[in-house]
Fold each of these.
Amino acid sequence: MELIALRLTKQTISEIDNLVKRGIYPNRSEAMRDAARLLLRMQKGMFTGKAKPVSKDVLIKEFAKKEGFKL
């Protein structure tokens, strides 16, 4: 594995920490690895059924709609 530096807002870090506290992830690093894997799957069209890159805004909206989140 390689190490990368990442800057996130305090709010985002707080939300990730909440996922860790709830036991969804064992630590921040695993949550971020999962986020990276999700991004790559989305870009490959695994959620949309489309095998072409789409903008992150479209992906976020599709994911939020599928999961029932309001943006």
Note: The chain is about 55% helix and 0% strand.
Amino acid sequence: MNKKLSIFILLFVSLMLIAPVAAIVSVTNDYYTIYIDDGGQGEFTVGTGTMHPYPNTNVLYGGTGYPGTSWFEINFYDLSDIATLFDLQSYYQGVAIDTNSMTETWDIGDSFFSPSTGNFVIARTLTAHGDTYASSYVEIETTFTNNLTSTINFGFWDMWDLMIAGSDDAIMRTIGPQIMWTGNFQGWYPPMFSAMEITDVAPPLNTFSIYIPFEGVDFTPTVPDNFIYGDWSPVGHWGYVPSGGYSDSGIAFVYGASESSPISLATGESTTIYQYISTNAEAFNINVPSDNNVSPVSFLPLYRVKLEQAIEMWECIISQLPEEISEENALLIESVQSFMSGAITLTNPIYANGQLSKAIDQMLLIQEAFDIDCVK
């Protein structure tokens, strides 16, 4: 049994015996769903939404609604103290929910910084952006505000637990420049590539990839001092040095990585870190390289045939739909439109062909629901 599954089962049983189940809160744009454990320390995770090509599955571990294995640590250099997310539980202020975003806050008070007065505030906003699959992504905006009476110097170590669909041992490659797919754990000090792509198995057999950008046109990711692809859970702790690989994996963003180059905030100052994640490279204008053993061009003939087939079937279905449509069937129709949009906008015929296959599968369900006979 997966060790993290064992942890969750044990935790669940313990909570049933001694306390109410933790309050999991979420927001979604229908393509991505963000979850926060508002009854714990504020751990988060990301999964796919109902309109995603692969609905209700993991983008990060626990993405089906069970946050708990991604966390952060703060190294307060002036205090010679490393505070984990769990150490800060008593300062956790909970979650404020908006339409497509949630903001959680830690207000670290006098008892932590004594004899200093005032407080140190961490506010983290997680937002599901976009109204189509092609435009959707998740933004994580973390703001640190120093209300202490003196300057504070610190480092921020943010770990995300990887799990693509059902694979806990996600593999990766960098883009711009590109490296070969690998599960070997390694670090970059700092990262000098434009994006990282992470997936379950090497394409074209993979389920989907996630993309983490380090540069952008319409947005500006905050480039960490260090970036590490490593072994969960050690990759989530300060000072981890990657080794080994091809096992349970996570990534760490490290900002203010050393006492000689900290994040430094004078009294009254704030700073914000921006991070992004999506399963669609086009959301970030990332040019995905062709895989080493498969040429996307070879899929063009199949793609063109299937596109013509899908358009013909869809036109036939639309012409026969009744005026009154249930909410359940309306979601089916919307999913076809999403898959067709993905097939037309994706530049890689391999992935576009997959979108068309999903669109056709949904069309067959619609035909069955409305007793429509359209040629496949």
Note: The radius of gyration is 23 Å.
